[in-house]
Fold:
Amino acid sequence: MASYVAPSVGSDAARAGVWAVLKARAAVEPFNVVATAIFALAVLHTFFTARFRRWAHAVETRYAARPRKRPRVVTDNDGDGRPDEVSFFGQVLHYLGEVEAVFGTWALVLFCAVVCDKGLDTAIHYFANRVNFTEPMFVVIVMALASTRPILRLAEQCLRVVARLGGETPLAWWLSILTVAPLLGSFMTEPAAMTIAALLLAKQFYALRPSKPLKYATLGLLFVNISVGGTLTHFAAPPVLMVAAKWGWGLGHMFLNFGWHAVVGIVVSNAVYFLVFRRELARLGAGASSGGSDTVKESESAPIPVWVTLGHLLFLGFTVWMAHHPVLFVGGFLFFLAFAQATAHHQSRIDLRGPMLVGFFLAGLVIHGGLQAWWIEPVLGSLGRLPLFASAMVLTAFNDNALITYLATLVPNFSEELRYAVVAGAVTGGGLTVIANAPNPAGQSILQRYFEGGVSPLGLLAAALLPTLIIGLVFVLL
Structure:
């Protein structure tokens, strides 16, 4: 099983017509349509996760209230601090309500469909050999490293220098995190930048309990800014990495054609949302200064030794350096765990649940995304500059932006103008949904506890739309 794209049909969509190409490919390989239908159902599922969580809560409430013939014996055999006895169906509904579990769950459906249509050997070959799980594995380890106490303390101290220019008010922290942290994605990878930015926003901003519109506006800004903030260099952001070597884009090319546009777009987007929410941001600052918030204060514990922080930076740098070699960065992480144990008195607890869920999400996404080339590639190949930019931006909302740019490298005879359009469109649309950019699930996993009922996909889309349009105009007009 290659990619379910019929190579004998050709891909000259501009000459044959996109619809004709798609019909021909579907006729040659009908499973193309099946794979895309399963993917569409997975995308649809993400919009109903909040409803599944509500159903789970109702089922568990009924389960807890039902009369029992014998007294309940409360045990905690797994040591998680919660009673062992739970509602099985309630837990199943909770699982279906986890955004991070959606694409992995539907990947199981896809596996069964491939087995039924192509046989077990073909399914195993695709899942085990054709799908590249390097990025999900990398994101798991980078998230775990970036969320450690020494790295977070260092990042907070660096951003505090910027926040001091505004008196370290919540507004100053809000602006510094949303402006500076996304640009770190160009140097220490977007997943690391997202993890640091989300954790600091949780501590310095979301803990102040802002209004629901401001919560979503901040989340939308964060996702969009992280997506474009990785374009200052050619070696950190996945959608850029997919094309940089093949198209010969280096550091100078990225900064001159993308980087400064990204900086301008981030600053303008932040300024616009600041003007919209300036009164509430000022009130949050007044509440924080009067002690009316529950913001977590800087730890009063002993400072972390410099050599411990340097050790963490070395492990993080090694992981970024070996990002394309999972055997090496996984091995490096095992050494890091030993280092963390040896310096446990300077560490916080390393929680792998969030990173593992995010990795599961991304693994499911790359499984499905690998079978969408049959329709995305001819669509991209049939468009001019502005339609290509807009299409890449929209398609990114339903596919990881790295997949969009990768498929663009398969289209022959792409001019430099069209190359710019597809990459700019892909990174611009990277904040519209949680699946649009690989680091987004990490940010949602960290911040979703501040959103009652979880993050609404429609709420995120509405909040990210304005900064997406602003940055899109910057890329197109400047």
Notes: Residues 2-11, 290-300 have pLDDT under 50 and may be disordered.
